Amino acid sequence: MKSLFDSGTVSEILGRIEQLSESSKREWGKMEVGQMLYHCQFPLRLALGKYKMKKPNPLMKLIFRSFKKGMYDDKLWKPNLPTAKGFKVVEPKEFSKEKETLVNLVNDFHAEKSRTQWDPHPAFGEFTVQQWGQMQYKHLDHHLRQFGV
Questions:
Q1: What pLDDT does residue 55 have?
Q2: Which three-class secondary structure state does DSSP give residue 121?
Q3: pLDDT value of position 56
């Protein structure tokens, strides 16, 4: 699995983001392109300590941990997977602003590639450094494929 800690992978992701436009159409799901760009910021912000997600109750935590490996393995996520409550975006978002912010967050996350300690994910628990990078790539890849790039 590719990782956002790899420079070549970051270049690929940034190139794909650059291919998006205000008129990009989704192939599945409900979000418009600006909403998707905003949504993709949540996991990066969370990893960087810039967003606090409400911890799930013990039952939900158990459910989340049952599919933890799917967050960073090589299998593509299926279209129309449910979105975590704290990451849902329903209000319209400004495309250019959200695109710029996402690009900055991708670069900020990549800049942390030498970091050895990461806080546990509030829902999934501990991830290795490698898994954090893979998970971030997988989420971005999923949504960029959603918009055909």
A1: 82
A2: strand
A3: 82
State the pTM of this model: 0.94
3-state secondary structure 79-107: CCCCCCHHHCCCCCCCHHHHHHHHHHHHH
The residue behind tokens 């606090």 is 52
Q: Considering only the C-alpha atoms of the chain, give the largest distance between any 2 of them, rounded to a whole number of Å.
A: 41
Reported as a pLDDT band with limits 50, 70 and 90, residue 86 is: confident
What distance in Å separates the CA atoms of residue 37 and residue 34, rounded to the nearest whole number? Answer: 5
> Which of helix, strand or coil describes residue 48?
coil
How far apart are alpha carbons 28 and 40 in whole angstroms?
16
Three-state secondary structure call for residue 37: helix
Cross-strand bridge partners of residue 125 = 121
Output the pLDDT for position 26. 98
